[in-house]
Specification:
Elements: H1 2-14, E1 23-26, E2 34-40, H2 52-57, E3 62-66, H3 77-88, H4 91-99, E4 102-105, H5 108-111, H6 123-133, E5 150-154, E6 161-165, E7 176-178, E8 181-183, H7 193-205, E9 210-215, H8 233-246, E10 251-255, E11 262-266, E12 275-279, E13 307-314, E14 318-326, E15 332-341
Parallel strand pairs: 1-5, 2-3, 3-4, 6-9, 9-10, 10-12
Antiparallel strand pairs: 2-13, 5-6, 7-8, 11-12, 13-14, 14-15
Amino acid sequence: MCFKILILFILSLLSATQTIAFQRTVTNNADSSHTYIAFGSCNNQDELQPLWPAIIATQPDLWVWLGDNIYADTKDMQVMKKKYEKQLQHKPYQQLLSTTPITGTWDDHDFGYDNSDRRFDKKAESQRLFLDFMGEPRDAPIRKQEGTYRSYTLGAGEHKIKIFLLDVRYFKDPLLDIFGLYLPNPFADVLGKAQWQWLEQELAASDAQVNIIASGLQVLPDGLSYTNWSNYPVARNRLLRLIEQTKPAVPILLTGDSHVGELSKINLKGYAYPLYEIKSSGMTHHRRAKKTGNSYRVGEQVGELNFGILDIAWAEDTATVTMQIRGEGNKVWLEEKVVFPRKDFKKHTRVEL
């Protein structure tokens, strides 16, 4: 067993890559009393996409893709390119692009194929196509980096929001598959050495009032019915401890995958309020909601086509964060509202664990 652990440790060192810091800043909403961030995942370019009119109607300050932005499901990069082009030619999506900045991350179906991971031999080419889809300039530093992880800053000063876009595919170890059942693997990682270093540095240095961590895989749920961070328990624990250690102000998790909307929360050391995770998944297809599989769930799962909204209302003494899962016609399926005293938006004192 010790020999196996040593080999796995050596392999993890060999797979480490150098990180290139990259972030984008948009300050168009710095003077507004509200900041609206819309987000979603699991969007099949070959199916009907009925949610865009509702999304556009919210007039978001930013749209965040949370993975499976298209369903490429291929190792042929020409096929993948055509699928991205089809989504870019979708008229309602073009309308959003004409009015709203976008950013985002990916998951398995737009990275490569179902449950694809670090072993995918076309991942560098896939990253180039993803960045093209995101509209990243040809000379952007992210083009020289392995992995799509990066940060995005919206607003400034007392209205500053920072979004940390995790890459949960490029470096992710394979799932532990035992006769078709995915089991927790204590030796497996999700982010890789360089991305962990980047994330720690970014969280520790952030002076944003709200700090959003975006992941294509759910973080908090502890059930194993679907693939998520619980399949990687050491990595999941490391992420939560890293938030506790670096103490970013008002951390929020945005996630996708598994084709339902869901809200979860967990208590963290050093915070007077819970860490919330809001998952929006299923823009073109969804599954039936479940009662089980997540002991951290708030309310019920949403088994409908859905997208998410973060509405941050800035006031002198407080800031109110409203988290919503919405559907067609902007029907609100799920909502949680949290009022934070302004003092809680200042960066907490870093603690050593």
